[in-house]
C-alpha cells in the first residue's frame, strides 16, 4: 500500500456554503424519466463514445471488500450519504448510505493522483490491452490473429463455451483488453466487431504478403485498427459531440512538449456526460429490419449479461438497433441509471462522488480555465442554465456556483450551436482530445507513421465500412453510422468504399 496523504477529497466547494450529497444531487438535479432526442444522431454515437473512453482511461479501484457499508475509512472508503426517506435507497435505521470505494493512487506522489491503467492514446488498449502479459494472452501465438471463440459458427471474443449452455445458463466472461467489456451488451458488440476487424486485416495482409512474419502481420494489423479508431473518433464522433467540422483544429504534427495524460476533470467529470446519452430502451433489429423475437432491451437488463450477445441476435441486432434508436440529449440521466443500475447503485451519484474522490475542482474553476466569466451568482449563469427553476434548484442545493460539481454542470449546461454539450464541457473535451492527438508520435497523420498512399486509403475509413466487413449479416448501412435511420436512408454495403490493402503490399 502506498504511503501518501489519502485524506485529500473535495468535500466542500467554497466557504460560501456546502453541497448536497452525491445521491441528493443526482436525485433532484440529474435524474429524469423524460427522454429528448438529440437531433439526427443515433445511440451508436453513445456506444462508440464509451468504447473510446475505455481505450484511454481506466481508474484503478481499491478493494471493495475493505469498505463495509457506511464505513468512512480515510484513503479507502467514501460512502455516499442517503436520506432515510429516499424511496429507492433509504433505510429505517440511519445512517443510510451507498457504498463507494476510492480510486487507487499513484504511489509516492502528493497530492493524491489517481492511477490510469490504460495508455492515454487512442491505440486500441481496450482491444489489445496496455499490459504486455495480457496482450500475449489475447494473441494467438500460432498466427497473427487475436484469439477468438467460435459460437454458432461465428467468431467472438475468447470465452469458455463450457460455461454457456443456453441463454438461461451462461456464466461465461469475455476475455479482451479491458475487463469492463461486459458492463453493457452494446459495448461487447463493438468489442466483437473490432476483434473481427483485426483478424480480417491480418488475414488479408497475410495473403498479400506471404513473406511477412506473424509478428509483422499482427503489428501492422493493430496499427491499422488504431488508425481507424483515431479517424472515427476525430472525424466522425467528435464532430457531432462538439458540433464542428474540424473540432481539434488543423493537425501540425507531433509536438513533444504536449502532455497527453488523461486529466481528472476529463475522466471524472466532462467525459462522463456520455451517460446522459443512454436511452432507457434500445431496439434490437434483424437483417430484414424487424425486431428480433426477444424484442427491445431495457438498458439495465443489458448490464453484465454476455449471453444476450450470444443468444439474442449477435452483435448485428444490437448495432442495428442502436442505429435505429435516436440518441438521447445528454442533459439529464434516465431513471434506469439512477434508480436501477446494478440493482443497488445510482450511476449519477457514483459519477459525482468519483469527481469528489479525485479532488476535481468545482464548476467555476473550469469556467475560468476555459476563458468563460466566473459566476458570482446563479443568475450569472442564465445562458448556461436558461430554466429559472433549474437555477433555483442549483441555488438550493449548492448555495454558490463555486460549489457546483463539474459533473453536475456537465450534464445540465445548455448546448450551443450544433454541439451536444455546453461550452465548459466542450472546452474540456476539446482540450483533452487535442492533447491526445498532438502528443502522440504514432498518430496516424504524423509523417512517417504511414506512407502517403497508405494514409490516403486510411482517410477513407468509416465505421459503416467496418460494420459491413465484420457483422454477421450486414448488407445495408447508413453511410454515416452515427446518423439515425428509420430503415429508409440505408446504403448497400457494396457502395461503401473499402480500404485498398494493396498499398501495404511489399
Automatic annotation (TrEMBL):
Catalytic activity, reaction form: 2 a phenolic donor + H2O2 = 2 a phenolic radical donor + 2 H2O
A GO BP annotation: response to oxidative stress
GO cellular component: extracellular space
Matches recorded under Pfam families: An_peroxidase
Annotated EC: 1.11.1.7
Residues binding heme b: 275
Enzyme superclass (EC): oxidoreductase
Entry keyword set: Disulfide bond, Heme, Iron, Metal-binding, Oxidoreductase, Peroxidase, Signal
Superkingdom per UniProt: Eukaryota
Transmembrane parts of this sequence: none
InterPro entries assigned to the protein according to its UniProt record, in alphabetical order: Haem_peroxidase_animal, Haem_peroxidase_sf, Haem_peroxidase_sf_animal
A single GO molecular function term of this UniProt record: heme binding
The keyword Zinc is assigned to this record: no
Alphabetical list of Gene3D superfamilies matching this protein: Haem peroxidase domain superfamily, animal type
Protein name, entry field: peroxidase
Origin species: Romanomermis culicivorax (Nematode worm)
Amino acid at each position: 500500500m502506498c504511503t501518501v496523504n489519502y485524506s485529500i477529497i473535495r468535500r466542500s466547494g467554497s466557504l460560501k456554503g456546502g453541497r448536497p450529497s452525491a445521491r441528493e444531487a443526482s436525485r433532484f438535479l440529474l435524474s429524469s424519466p423524460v427522454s429528448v432526442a438529440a437531433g439526427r444522431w443515433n445511440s451508436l454515437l453513445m456506444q462508440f463514445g464509451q468504447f473510446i473512453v475505455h481505450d484511454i482511461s481506466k481508474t484503478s479501484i481499491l478493494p471493495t471488500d475493505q469498505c463495509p457499508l457506511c464505513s468512512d475509512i480515510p484513503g479507502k472508503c467514501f460512502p455516499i450519504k442517503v436520506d432515510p426517506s429516499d424511496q429507492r435507497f433509504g433505510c429505517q435505521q440511519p445512517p443510510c448510505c451507498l457504498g463507494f470505494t476510492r480510486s487507487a493512487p499513484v504511489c509516492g506522489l502528493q497530492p493524491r493522483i489517481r492511477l490510469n491503467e490504460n495508455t492515454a492514446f487512442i491505440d486500441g488498449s481496450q482491444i489489445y490491452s496496455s499490459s504486455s502479459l495480457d496482450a500475449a494472452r489475447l494473441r494467438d501465438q500460432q498466427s497473427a490473429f487475436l484469439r477468438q471463440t467460435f459460437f454458432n459458427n461465428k467468431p467472438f471474443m475468447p470465452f469458455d463455451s463450457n460455461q454457456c449452455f443456453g441463454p438461461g445458463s451462461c456464466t461465461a466472461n469475455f476475455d479482451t483488453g479491458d475487463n469492463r467489456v461486459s458492463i453493457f451488451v452494446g459495448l461487447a458488440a463493438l468489442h466483437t466487431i473490432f476483434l473481427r476487424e483485426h483478424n480480417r486485416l491480418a488475414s488479408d495482409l497475410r495473403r498479400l504478403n506471404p513473406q511477412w512474419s506473424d509478428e509483422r502481420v499482427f503489428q501492422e494489423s493493430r496499427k491499422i485498427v488504431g488508425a481507424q479508431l483515431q479517424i472515427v473518433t476525430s472525424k466522425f464522433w467528435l464532430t457531432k459531440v462538439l458540433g464542428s467540422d474540424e473540432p481539434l483544429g488543423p493537425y501540425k504534427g507531433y509536438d513533444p512538449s504536449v502532455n497527453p495524460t488523461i486529466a481528472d476533470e476529463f475522466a471524472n467529470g466532462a467525459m462522463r456526460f456520455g451517460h446522459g446519452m443512454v436511452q432507457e430502451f434500445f431496439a434490437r433489429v434483424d437483417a430484414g429490419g424487424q425486431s428480433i423475437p426477444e424484442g427491445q432491451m431495457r438498458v439495465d437488463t443489458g448490464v453484465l449479461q454476455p449471453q444476450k450477445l450470444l443468444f439474442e441476435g449477435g452483435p448485428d441486432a444490437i448495432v442495428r438497433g442502436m442505429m435505429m434508436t435516436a440518441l438521447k440529449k445528454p442533459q439529464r440521466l434516465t431513471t434506469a441509471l439512477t434508480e436501477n443500475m446494478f440493482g443497488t447503485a445510482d450511476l449519477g451519484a457514483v459519477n459525482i462522488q468519483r469527481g469528489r474522490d479525485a479532488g476535481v475542482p468545482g464548476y467555476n474553476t473550469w469556467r475560468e480555465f476555459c476563458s468563460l466569466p466566473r459566476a458570482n451568482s446563479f443568475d450569472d449563469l442564465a445562458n448556461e442554465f436558461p430554466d429559472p427553476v433549474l437555477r433555483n434548484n442549483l441555488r438550493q442545493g449548492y448555495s454558490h456556483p463555486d460549489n457546483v460539481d463539474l459533473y453536475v454542470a456537465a450534464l445540465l449546461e445548455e448546448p450551443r450551436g450544433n454541439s451536444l454539450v455546453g461550452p465548459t464541457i466542450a472546452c474540456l473535451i476539446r482540450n483533452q482530445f487535442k492533447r491526445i492527438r498532438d502528443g502522440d508520435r504514432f498518430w496516424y497523420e504524423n509523417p512517417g507513421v504511414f506512407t502517403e498512399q497508405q494514409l490516403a486509403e486510411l482517410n477513407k475509413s468509416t465505421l459503416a465500412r467496418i460494420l459491413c466487413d465484420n457483422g454477421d449479416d450486414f448488407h445495408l448501412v447508413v453511410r454515416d453510422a452515427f446518423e439515425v435511420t428509420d430503415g429508409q436512408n440505408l446504403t448497400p454495403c457494396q457502395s461503401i468504399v473499402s480500404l485498398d490493402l494493396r498499398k501495404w503490399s511489399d
